[in-house]
Every structure is written in structure tokens, then in C-alpha cells.
Amino acid sequence: MSEQPRQILDCIGNTRLLPLRRLPSPAGARIFLKLESENPTGSMKDRMALAMVEAAEKDGRLPPGGWVIEYTGGSTGVSLALVCAVKGHPLHIVTSDAFAREKIDHMRILGARLRIIASDDGRMTEKLTRDMIAAAASVMEETGGFWTDQLNNTDQLAAYHRMAEEIWHQTAGRIDGFVQSVGTAASLRGIAETLRRHNPRIRIAAVEPTESPVLSGGPAGAHKIDGIGAGFVVPLWQNGIADRIERVSTAEAKDMALRLAREEGLFAGTSTGANLVAALRLARELGPDATLVTVMCDTGMKYLSKS
């Protein structure tokens, strides 16, 4: 009998890998989704929230009962709220009305204190990201708390190294391509690093919004894909981390997320839709014998107010 979890944080990770059945690749390649919606808050961000908090607890940056601070579009904030509730840390979150109301409500229910920054008509922009960062810095000065600083925090990479090991074992090492959208770039970077240690020939595709294609050299712009496309080249991004960068529009991401729900029964957010659009493109290139993995980043239940 497998070891039973002692607390909710023990339920983070070890999510299942599911093959697509009714959304087959035009080239016949096999595409698998890593079901990160199975994490306790319904998001892959549970992994990185736990890794950042525990690393800071271990080295003394975060004392018992100490304040935690973060700026976030919501999923990281919800995950931090869960971790901090269990571990007894008060949490102050800077977020925005640009993001799904469900996430803001979830953070509040889990006990987070919120500062909400106004957006430009509900759109994600570079200015909004920088305004949130500045507000988080102000809160840190006011409280003297520990700022997890997700755009710069390398402690989270360990969580994604572990996630990559799960993928490697679940595919029995038979994986030819991996696709992931870029928010902080931590998940793409951490997973790519580990998969390439196992097999340097694995093709890695990064995904960014067509409306704000800064990683591929384009101008910053506004889009409505929650959790990705900060509007500038994020600090954790590294040139060479991906073999290709795929641009996916908000409309394409929304349409694919809807298809995923109606054809596969998997209700996910728009970043997952963007991942799948890019995975289907990569599948055409890799051919019928290829196996690709991408990520169901979270559950679509977080986005009902934006549907």
C-alpha cells in the first residue's frame, strides 16, 4: 500500500500524464498532457510555491510566522496562499483586476491580504507587470517580510526538475518534444534542463502571445492569456533554453481551450490552449512516430468569470 499523505502539501506533484484521443496530431504524433490541474489548488504553481517557501524557511530568510509577499496574476498567489495557510505564514499579495476573479476570491478565502492594481481594460501589459512589481517592493519595505519574487527566484527550478523526472519516467524515456508557455520561464527552463540531461535531442518549444512576442524579438503588447507574456524578457529566460519560440494569439488559445473541453472533456485555462496549439505545430514537424508532452497548467474552473 502506498504511503498516505499526512497533510495537503503532500498531495502536490505526481500528477498523471494523459494522451489526447479526439484531438490527434495531423501528423499522427502522440501528444500527452501533464495534468497539473490535479494539484491541490488546481495549478502547477503549487509546486513552485512550496519550493520557494521551503527553501527560504530552510536557510533562514523566512522565519517562523514571517510575512510572505508576492506579485502575481493569481495562480502563484493561490498556491502561496495554500502553502502559507498550512505553514502559518501571513501572506500579502499584489495582483490586478486583469486576472480572473476566481483566483482573487480563492486567495482571499485562503487568508491572503490583497492589494489590487488597476489594469488597462483587463489586459496584460508590460506597464501592469512593472506596476505590480513596484507595489510588491513597497509592501516588502512596509512589512519587512520575505518577498518570494517569482520572476527572479531560482529556488523554484528544483520543483520543475522534479516535474521533468516525473515526465521522463511516465513516458519511459520515449519523448521527442516538450512544449510550455512562458510566464516566469521557470517551468520551461527547469523541465527543459532535466529532460535534456536525459536526452539532449529532445526538442523544446517555448510559447508566447502573438500580441506580445518579446522573446522572439517583437514589440511588447497587450493580450488576455492569463499567466504568460509579461511584456519583457523575464530574468529567468535563457537564450538557447528552447529550440523554437511559437507565437499563439489570445483567440487561438481560447478556441483551443474550448476544443479541449468539448472534444477531450478537459477543462483548462487559455495558457493550456496556447500550449496545445504550439504542440500540434511541433507535431507536424516531428512526424508520425514522435511523442510530445505539454502541460495542462491549471483547471478552467479558475476562469469561469472570463469565459
Layout of helices and strands:
Layout: E1 17-19, E2 30-35, H1 45-59, E3 68-71, H2 75-87, E4 91-96, H3 101-109, E5 113-117, H4 126-143, E6 146-147, H5 157-170, E7 177-181, H6 186-198, E8 203-209, E9 244-248, H7 250-264, H8 270-286, E10 291-296
Parallel strand pairs: 2-10, 3-4, 3-6, 4-5, 7-8, 7-10, 8-9
Antiparallel strand pairs: 1-2
Helix pairs in contact: 1-2, 1-5, 2-3, 5-6, 7-8
The helix-and-strand class reads alpha/beta
Number of helices: 8
* N-C termini distance: 41 Å
Order of helices and strands: EEHEHEHEHEHEHEEHHE
For the biggest β-sheet, the strand order reads 1-2-10-7-8-9
Q: What are the segments in which pLDDT stays under 50 over at least 5 consecutive residues?
A: none
Query: What do the pLDDT scores average to?
Result: 94
Shape: globular
User: What is the share of helical residues?
Assistant: 25-40%
What is the alpha-carbon Rg in Å? 18 Å
Largest sheet: 6 strands, mixed
Structure description:
The protein has 307 residues and is an alpha/beta fold. The chain is built from eight helices and ten strands. The strands form two sheets. A six-stranded mixed β-sheet has the order 1-2-10-7-8-9, with helices on both faces. Strands 5-4-3-6 form a four-stranded parallel β-sheet, sandwiched between helices. Helix 3 links the parallel strand 4 and strand 5 (113-117). 52% of the residues are buried.
In short:
The chain is of the alpha/beta class and about 300 residues long. The protein contains eight helices and ten strands.
